[in-house]
From TrEMBL:
InterPro entries: Quino_amine_DH_bsu, WD40/YVTN_repeat-like_dom_sf. Gene3D superfamilies: YVTN repeat-like/Quinoprotein amine dehydrogenase. Residues 1-19 form the signal peptide. It comes from Streptomyces tibetensis. Residues 390-417 are annotated as: Disordered. Keywords: Signal. Transmembrane segments: none annotated. This is Ig-like domain repeat protein.
Amino acid sequence: MLTTATALAVLLGSVTLAAAGAGPAAADSSALLPLKSSGDIVVDGVHHRVFISDPTAGQVVVTDYAGTVTAAVGSLPGVHGLELSPDSGTLYAAVRDADAVVAIDTATATESRRFATGAGAGPSYVALAGGKLWFSYGSSGNGNIGSLDPSGVDPKVTLGQDTGRTFYDAPILDASAGAPGTLVAGAPGQSPVELAVYDVSSGTASRTAYAFDPGSTGGGNLQDLAVTPDGKDVVTASGAPYYQAVYKLTDLTADGKYVTNTYPNAVDIAPNGDVAAGTSSSYEPDVHVFKQGVPTPVKQYDLPDTGTPGDSDLLAPAGLAWAPDESRLFALSKNGADAYALRIYDAPTKASTTLTVNAPATAGRGTSLALTGTLASSAAFGADTKVSVTRTDDESPAGKPLGTATVETDGSYTLADTPPAGGKVTYTVTYAGDDAHAGASATHEVSVAKSAAALTLNNDGKVYGYGSDVTFAAHLGTTYKNRTVEIWADPYGSDKPNTLVKKGTVDSHGNLSATVRLTRDTKVSATFTGDTRYAARTVTSSAYTRVAISTSLSGSYKSATAWNQKYSYFHQSKDPVQNTTMSMYPERTYQLQVQRYADGAWRTTATEYFSLDRHGRDAATLDGTPPIGPRFRIRSSYIDPKSGDNVNTTTYGAWKYFVFTR
């Protein structure tokens, strides 16, 4: 069972990377497969299914084009070679250890018929040619070819069709609609390579060409072969030489090559003749795509490392298969932890393209900026190649097309834009692709500075009496669409929250007012939340509030006006009492100050702080033996922050004047 760490590693191998020309590229997507081994892979273009044989588990696993497993056909011990009928209705599977060829209904992915091939004639590979199903069987010097007719009630199995006893083991088989009466066979894993061609149009196999070490390359360890759609050639994949060799069916002489790299092990040919060639290459590309007859690849893919670190995934032998419409190429890979994955390459025959886009990282709103970039590929572009540009911002969250830019002969392009909105602006440049090039896109983000909104708030720094109702007026200048202002009041002290006083649309003059009752120092804020073109802004106004103080002197025997003030008169034996009431705050104290008039000025004789009770009251007694005659005055005050808090501004109480007599 695959561990979580391994599974994640395989999935991470599906990340798409761009690559130019024939350089390495990564799989467009991948999916884990529940395989213990692999034999063959076939693609059904009618039902959009992929069939993979698993000899060890005795099953054919079925996936959709995304690699999702949709079914598994079991009870197929040793199943290996697969062949799809021309109408894609039936998949034929060579089931070696059951001595049978099994027909699988491709629509339902279930076994529909089983053809016994006889004891000891367990088939390894299958191919349709000349109106019959041909299969290879045997080992240890007894490799041979048999045939059966899958269309009738009696399959009419005929063994020993290779009368020349060419092969040591059951050979790899293939055929092509371009040569309907021709069958090609190759010795698997043998060095040097051994090939044979048969005319099977009469229902029996007649050898027409044979080669031991075809092309005199010294190649060996044949892993896969495929007949070209036109029926002219066979392309082989053998461990050596390091290319997929091409041989004529007429005489098996060399007819070209598709140059890959170390240890070729797979080949499949699309209906239009394009070639997918695979190699078992740890540190080089594993999948190579060629246009028909062109020896250098148009695109290559390097399998990632999803298993043991430093141990790259490898392509499974014969692990390549085209979708019949050539829209996809499927590759079967295996990592160092024996985990299999199906890799799906989209548009494999189109040359990779690399698209870049550059722009300033920052810009001013309403200021023109230049978008530049390049479009590159190993395949030349046409004279009128264009890229499309889209701008996405807060005013156009779904994207606004800006038109196209023409790609110059050196691959460069330029487009100017003036972003109307501020904030994050994303430019997306897209190349749609064509018959020869894959599409590509690139993005670039620009931080566009918004314009500053003019916002003011009155009454900053002013001082008000306790309980005053004060009108605060905010003024908002030019903006784009948002004309809403919020006015907040935040009284000093942790026990009072910041409170929204008013929210509304400013009037035609840009004004919005709100009245705040002040009992403490208060920070009043006006906030404009911004819009797509003007930045959010907050301005504050600090309004200071006095405490409420009332004082009185008690214990006098009379009061009278003297020296232009009202004086209280006390007998020397009577202690005056200063009564103080003040707006309260927890642990608030007040300052008591006494002054005496001497030498033509009032001079402080005592200053002391006293606590207020929970109602904000206190009565302070002036005791002792005072002098008779001199004038005195007394007051109670709140001193910020010496009175124990800072929630109000310093407030001095009124002076109370008094004199002592006998």
